[in-house]
Amino acid sequence: xxxxxxxxxxxxxxxxxxxxxxxxxxxxxxxxxxxxxxxxxxxxxxxxxxxxxxxxxxxxxxxxxxxxxxxxxxxxxxxxxxxxxxxxxxxxxxxxxxxxxxxxxxxxxxxxxxxxxxxxxxxxxxxxxxxxxxxxxxxxxxxxxxxxxxxxxxxxxxxxxxxxxxxxxxxxxxxxxxxxxxxxxxxxxxxxxxxxxxxxxxxxxxxxxxxxxxxxxxxxxxxxxxxxxxxxxxxxxxxxxxxxxxxxxxxxxxxxxxxxxxxxxxxxxxxxxxxxxxxxxxxxxxxxxxxxxxxxxxxxxxxxxxxxxxxxxxxxxxxxxxxxxxxxxxxxxxxxxxxxxxxxxxx
Length: 347
Prior knowledge:
mainly beta; nine-stranded antiparallel β-sheet; SH3 type barrels; 21 strands
């Protein structure tokens, strides 16, 4: 018992006091107007610093309003506009608009304008989680038709990995019957080879009544190249190969098919009022199993931030298949969706 009292209770006391010391470790952000905030630095994304103020909640500050920053409560991954990646903690520099990134004996000085993104990695679990949820609904009594639109994303980032799960659907209600007209479920997992290239595993599920598609499962590998990584513009190019298993609405199943995808993604941001973002995704699939078959999936999203983390969204989508699997099905499907989007932020 004496040994237990001499070892267990001091360890227990050290655990609780260590937690207090951990919690007492604060970050500091200095603004050009003289304001100073103390709390936890979260990240830099889309040209804004996100800072969780002690007893004040999360604030988003434009990068040109920040004079200096000290962030030592976490280890951070800093990605620059010149496609370089640094890991470490952030110390404010005496020169306005610069920060010092320190990792062990290594020290690097960076200008705020050269920083594209900063993400923190929790010291225990090394993870960050982000996401959003968007929804819209319309109904007309004269036709007795309702339409529900759902759009959701959740992503997890580690030191060398990035994983995302997304879901998009359009569900129609008519004559007491619910119909899943369009569904897309995607899971992507990328490994960072360097600041420019990531190797990924891609998994998709699709359903499209207009094209006669009951379901399509896709699995493949892809290489993603970050073409542009600036404060207000980001662009990616992805290519690789995908394997398809398809079934049409008539119940006919088709043999395994291989496609070559080429995808371009562009994100544009405007930080002045009104605060807008434009997201463009265009993917072309060239079939290697069916000569002459070409498919295209495209999305264009315009987001207007009305209040913090709440957006009004306008979504235009289109899907094209030169040889649809459904009998007498259309080759082109397109539509427009208006809804509200809530940014789930960091967990």
